[in-house]
Amino acid sequence: MQRRQAYVQAIHRAAAPGAGLFILAFAQRPFGDGMPGPNGFTAEELRDTVATQWTVDEVRPATLYANDVQLAAGSAPGVEAQRDDKGRLMFPGFLLLAHKG
């Protein structure tokens, strides 16, 4: 959590007055239960983390897309994900919109 706060603070310092902030973040456990991967957020965690420095306008569900990792033995093992019509992996996430007050 400290790294998340440091990141949000650094962006806030660098941003001009009135700047907009858009964050596309993974939801919790985007690769499935028990799989290594990013530490995702709940919608509330994302809002609360960013709201320490920014005025949060909206947090809404989103989908993150990725190309499949091809290994010698095939796809990355154990990753649970839906695929779109082009074969891209689809992971749950959130899109946050905020502005610097």
Detailed description of the structure:
By secondary structure, the chain is α+β, with helices and mostly antiparallel strands. The chain has helices at residues 2-14, 43-50; strands at 20-26, 55-66, 70-71, 74-75, 82-83, 89-99. Helices cover 21% and strands 36% of the residues. A hairpin with a 5-residue loop joins strand 5 and strand 6 (89-99). It is elongated. The protein starts with a helix and ends with a strand. The model has no long low-confidence stretch (mean pLDDT 88).
Topology:
Blueprint: H1 2-14, E1 20-26, H2 43-50, E2 55-66, E3 70-71, E4 74-75, E5 82-83, E6 89-99
Antiparallel strand pairs: 1-6, 2-6, 3-4, 5-6
Shape: elongated
Low-pLDDT stretches are: none
Structural class: alpha+beta
Rg over C-alpha atoms, rounded to the nearest angstrom: 16 Å
Protein name: SAM-dependent methyltransferase
Name a few traits of the molecule.
101 residues, single chain, elongated, Rossmann fold, SAM-dependent methyltransferase
What's the gist of this structure?
This protein is α+β, with helices and mostly antiparallel strands and 101 residues long. The chain has helices spanning 2-14, 43-50; strands at 20-26, 55-66, 70-71, 74-75, 82-83, 89-99. It has one domain: 3-Layer(aba) Sandwich (Rossmann fold), CATH 3.40.50.150.
